[in-house]
Protein 1
Amino acid sequence: MRDFLQGWNQINHEIILSKIAALLTRGKKFLLMTHKDPDVDGIGSMLALGRALISKNKEIVLLTEEPLVSPVIFLEGADKVVQILSFPDDYDAVLALDCAEKSRIGFSKAFVDNAEPLINIDHHGTNDFFGDINLVDEKSSSTGELIYRLIKNAGFPMDLAVAKNIYAAIMTDTGSFRYSNTTPLSFRIAAEMMDYGVKPWELSRRIMDEYGHARLKLLRLALDTIEFHNKGQIGIIMITKEMFEATHADRADSDKFVDYPRFVSGVELAVLIRQKGENEYKFSLRSNGLIDVARLASRFGGGGHIRAAGFDADGSISDLKRKFLQEANQVLDDLSN
Ligand SMILES: [Mn+2]
């Protein structure tokens, strides 16, 4: 039965892919968006699909709420991404890429509600199917992988610029092909992208391995905050606004900091708490395999993947931490019973 259902799901995705491909082939003008605080998968997917559509003589607008920062700014074609405020209503479709829910797109509700039809292409298990058409495949390593399948299905042209963005999207979402979401298909696509001229070393150096002095200064401060709970099973690292200010670092500079507690032996759940405002915090959760952090995050109104999820929280940090640890300890204790 399980095999049958998985098979059915796969057939279903192909039908939806064809439906989206037909819509993109027929239409003329499209708006592409991704989630707030966009990552390489989101922007890379926008750039890859945008470029493929431009070679089919479509009019494309690639829109983000905020100007791009490192590392997404280093993606091929990133200078084509714009920030505008009004919403012209003459698009043949609006595509939301890598967004688990409508509110993740950012912008005002009225702005996004104007989008019609809204096509939701995503790989988050917590996706709530907010689109008029939903291509949601949680087995996909990345949205970039879905964009690859869409481009193939539609028969749109692939070139080095498209390949670089698809490769970068898969590379970052799989942690350089190390995370549990890495599949044989991820490797096959990566190999094909190399045939188009992608150089893995060059892309990983530019997008994953290069950082400025600010990041190192921020890391120095953040490492001092690491604490462990529940017999060393929970590791927490914290970054305050003052730390950002003192080091002139930006949000992207704290990317992957959660790996420092995560790599410590015995840790099952790693948490990065980033202060966004006076009483505003972002919790990023990583699981080493035992805990479903998407479920844990959803108890606080957030979401994500089984091994990587997060949520926003308002309040005093001591209260937020206490409430979070209560839930997390409970989940861990239930697992060991
Ligand atoms: Mn993604």
Protein 2
Amino acid sequence: MNLDNSGLHQLVATKLDEAGQMYTQKRQKLVDALSQAGPCTLPELLEFSDGIAQSSAYRNLTVLEEMGVVRRLVHHGEYGRWELSEELTGHHHHHLVCHSCDVVIDVELPTHIEHLMDEAFEKAAIGSKFTVDRHNIDIVGTCANCQETAQA
Ligand SMILES: [Zn+2]
Ligand SMILES: [Zn+2]
């Protein structure tokens, strides 16, 4: 796959620079891998980012998370999952989360539904004098693989 992530790298570089952090080659590789792989676990991420040791990848992900570059999708499973923050990608989406195996699948809702939800959330927040910036909503259920396993 031919990656043109120059715009993305520019954004990340600026963000890190403002925080006095270096945008090292390893961090660039992780961002490339995440842009390719979608929400993934550390072992999955390592398959995409050749040559980075697990401990080093984890440390760098933690820094990138603190900088708001990546978001850790925390679920009850053994592994965390990471994805690039929506703020950077500009790609608003939701997650289908399997409660059995913790797989996370990106899913988009129609724009008019997003608008309706935003209106509903703003209305719900008015009573608490709360200003709404954004929403994170997971859709929880059972993935196709786990349904098959359950039937077998
Ligand atoms: Zn599953
Ligand atoms: Zn949404």
